[in-house]
Amino acid sequence: MAETLRVEDLYVRFGAGADQVKALNGVSLSLEAGEIYCLVGESGAGKSTLALAIMGLLPVAGSIPQGKVMFEGIDLVKAGSEQMRRLRGKEISMVFQDAQSALNPVQLVGPQLEEVILTHIDVSHREANRMAQDMLKEMGLPDPRRIMGSYPFSLSGGMCQRVMLAIALVLKPKLLIADEPTSGLDVTLQAQILQRLQDLCAEQNASILLITHDMGVVAHMAQKVGVLYAGSLVESADVIPLFKEPQHPYTSALLQSLPRLDDVDKSLQPLRGSPPNMVTLPPECPFLPRCHKAISRC
């Protein structure tokens, strides 16, 4: 299979000097065409930072001192702003974690969705409007015309999430980065949206980098899984081997903290301690202070 995305030894830093935050530390992963790669880990592990680094949307204080992000032969770290503008929305799309904050609160939904279409393909405003309404309908939103004429603040969180999905999927990108795309949705709609993402992979041979906390979604959706902890990718494996025989103690601890329907009498084992300070990360394994399997060699 052809490779769509390859992240090589990526480092991300925020700030400078002694208070510099080590957000990502040598992360490497790859996605093949038609593959769904799920990224899991605690809040603050660096999942959203990785997504923003790939998209070239890190805040002003963020920097990439080392590493590559290769997308179809293009190093996105070195790509210029105009080249990234042509890629974003058409070739690479992202669904942000907080949809209501990601949408422009003082602009109607319709123009925000049409803008993506009109920026990248040569169609009339009428055709862009039709494509936008069709996409909203496909996302399960009733009365797309009314939604197009609404402001984001007048919609529920779940509706805003579906609008964001419509914006991301309307041009059928080759790579979709989805940061908690179903967090504001009920279980029925969640299943529909996840099915739509799987259809995108099957129909367009697209790749999806799916960021989630829901291990049930991981088991259902992923071909490969990456586990992030304190800015480091501590484990990456195919989904079935990862669930059956996790190799890293952190992955094992995550799985042991989940309730199981097939073993209701099993007591949950919470993960002790707190994530490390990202400014003063230890030189050894960052999970060492919380690890129940640590030995002197660690």
Task: Provide a brief overview of the structure.
This protein is an alpha/beta fold and 298 residues long. The chain is built from 11 helices and 10 strands.
Structural shape: globular
Task: Please list the strands of the largest sheet in the order they lie side by side.
Answer: 6-7-8-3-9-10
Structural class category: alpha/beta
> Would you list the SSEs in sequence order as H and E?
EEEHEEHEHHHHHEHEHEEHH
- Termini separation (Å)? 37 Å
Helix count equals: 11
Instruction: Report the portion of residues in β strands.
Output: 15-25%
Number of DSSP strands?
10
Q: Main sheet, how many strands, which sense, barrel?
A: 6 strands, mixed
Approximate helicity band: 25-40%
Verbal overview:
With 298 residues, this protein is α/β, with parallel strands linked by helices. Helices cover 35% and strands 23% of the residues. It is built from 11 helices and 10 strands. It has a 6-stranded mixed beta sheet, sandwiched between helices. Strand 4 and strand 5 (74-75) form a beta hairpin. The longest helix has 18 residues, at 187-204. The radius of gyration is 20 Å and the shape is globular.
Question: What tags apply to this protein structure?
Answer:
alpha/beta, 298 residues, 4-stranded antiparallel β-sheet, 35% helix
